[in-house]
Each structure stands twice: as structure tokens, then as C-alpha cells.
Amino acid sequence: MKRLLVALLLAAAPVAHAQKVHLLIITGLAGEPQYGTAFRAEAALLADSARKRWGVADSSLIVLGEDPAADPKHITGHSTREEVARAFLQLTKRVVAGDVVLVFLNGHGAGEGVASRVNLPGPDPTAGDFATWIAGFTAQTVVFVNAASGSGDFTGVLAGRGRVIVTATRTALERNEVQFARPFVVGLTGAADTDKDDRVSVLEAVDYAKKEIARLYDADKRMLTEHAVVTDTALARSVTFGAPRAAADPRVLALIAERQQLEAQVAALRGRKATTDSTTYSAELERLLLLMAEKSQAIRTAGGKP
């Protein structure tokens, strides 16, 4: 029974409501005016929701675009390779163990394997570059969304422990224009909240987008040419975005804060796994997870939601 409890908690440990969220939005070259309008609208919707509904601080919200002058209210810089690298470096200085880093990349994509890319102003960063940049978030949960065409190969390059990778296409060969970005953002910012708890998981947003895309293709009587993919569905189900959960009872708030500290310790421990003796690591992880279970039970007993 004890082992089963630990296994269940392992799947559920990284929950976004207990951590700070940091958001990097990157939109690429539009090519045609209608794409630029769509890219900016999706970026603005996501940024506004992050700031107003998720409580993301301005210092942790970076929006890079082709033309900052086209939307100075939201776009904070050019989406060049240099600025993208600088943005990742900035976030590494702001995160702490247990935080969530959401990267939303949108544009026109191409390439294969580590050379896969999304077209940005100037030299295009590759999937390999993004893998290097997110490697610095060893004690955080990374949700990386590539909403571009031909994005499928990003999955194999970026996937890893503590990461959820979402791509608009199954392979790099699905190069036609994709519809994924809009319904995914709409879903993540509220439309996919089927249980009305003001929070949406990554998996819920992906499923919502898939249904909307199928509906759009069916309405146009077209064959479906894009198939979104999400890695680590267990983690994607547990990472949620939305209104911070609070409780009026100070006892519940104190218990939630204590559990958040334990979650941060778990995240930090996972970040040290490669350099920790396996027996020591397993024993400490089990101890922390059991303490988290006790805190969750105490929160339920006090009338709060764990």
C-alpha cells in the first residue's frame, strides 16, 4: 500500500497551482499579413490571461515578436535568436525549484530532427538550440508548446524528465498550414475548463484543440492534415493553469504553504538525482511524498481542496 501511494504521488507531484508560473511567448515571421494578425492575437490572449488570471508577474512574462511596434502593449522585444537566448537566461535567474516554465512558440516551421526550426527574424534557432536553452531548468517543470507547422520532430529532441512537450503536428512532414495555436490558447485560457474550477490542464487544452481542429476540417470538408502530440500525459494532466487556489481559513492556507514547501523540496531532489546515491534518493523521495500525502489529507480534513 505504501509503495502504491508513492507511485500515485510521483505522477501527481508537479501541480502548477502550488508553484509560480513563468511564461515566454515567441512568435516568428508571418510572411503574410493575416498570419501576423493571428500570431499577435494569440500571443496577446495568452499574455493577458497569464497576467490577469494566472497571476504571472511582469518580470516573468516575456513576449517576443517579429515587430514589437505592431503591439507595444504586449510585445516586449524582437523574436531574434539572440533575444530568445537572452529571454531564457533571464528566466533562469528568476525561477526557483518547483516553478513552472511555459514556452509558447508559434509561426511557420520546417526541418527535421535537431535541425527542426521555426522561422524567426534573422538566423533561425533549431530544436537543438531550444533543447540547450531549457536544459537549465533542472528543478522546474517545463511545458514547451510548438504550435508551428512541421513541428513534430521537436518532441524527440526536447522530451525529458519533468517536461511536457506539445507539438501541433505528429511529424516534420506535416508542413501544411496548421490551426492548432488558436484553439489551444483559447482552451488553455478557459474554454477547456469543463469542471468550472477556473483551472485548465495542459492535457485538457490539447484535447480541446484537437476536437476544435477536427470540427474545422470537417466543416470545410477537408482531410485532417495535422495531428497534435503531447508527451508525458500523466504530467500534462497534472500541470494546470488558471486562477490561484486560495482558502479563507488561515489553517488551510498554512497547510497549503507547508505542502508547497515539500513540493519544492521534491523538485530540488529530482534535480539532484543524477548526483545522489540511488538508495538515499529513493528513501528521501518516499519520505517527502508521504509527508505531502499527510498534508493533503490535513487540508481535506480542514475543509480545503488539496
Walkthrough of the structure:
- By secondary structure, the protein is of the alpha/beta class.
- It has 2 domains: 16-242, 3-Layer(aba) Sandwich (Rossmann fold); 246-301.
- Helices cover 45% and strands 14% of the residues.
- The chain has 10 helices and 11 strands.
- It has helices spanning 2-12, 33-52, 81-92, 127-134, 154-158, 181-191, 202-219, 233-238, 250-271, 278-301; strands at residues 21-27, 61-65, 77-78, 100-106, 109-110, 117-118, 141-146, 163-167, 199-201, 229-230, 240-242.
- Helix 2 runs parallel beside helix 6, helix 6 packs across helix 7 and helix 9 runs antiparallel to helix 10 (278-301).
- It starts with a helix and ends in a 5-residue tail after the last helix.
Descriptive key words:
single chain, Rossmann fold, 306 residues, 10 helices, 11 strands
Question: Can I get a quick summary?
Answer:
Helix content is 45%, strand content 14%. With 306 residues, it is an alpha/beta fold.
Beta content: 5-15%
Question: How many beta strands in the DSSP annotation?
Answer: 11
The neighbouring-strand order within the major sheet is 3-2-1-4-7-8-10
Q: Terminal Cα separation, in Å?
A: 21 Å
Order of helices and strands: HEHEEHEEEHEHEHEHEHEHH
Summarize the main sheet: 7 strands, mixed
Radius of gyration: 20 Å
Oligomer: single chain
Counting DSSP H or I runs of 4 or more residues, the number of helices is 10
Unreliable sequence segments: 4-18
According to CATH, the fold-level topology of the largest domain is Rossmann fold
Percent helix range:
40-55%
Shape: globular
CATH level-1 class of the largest domain: Alpha Beta
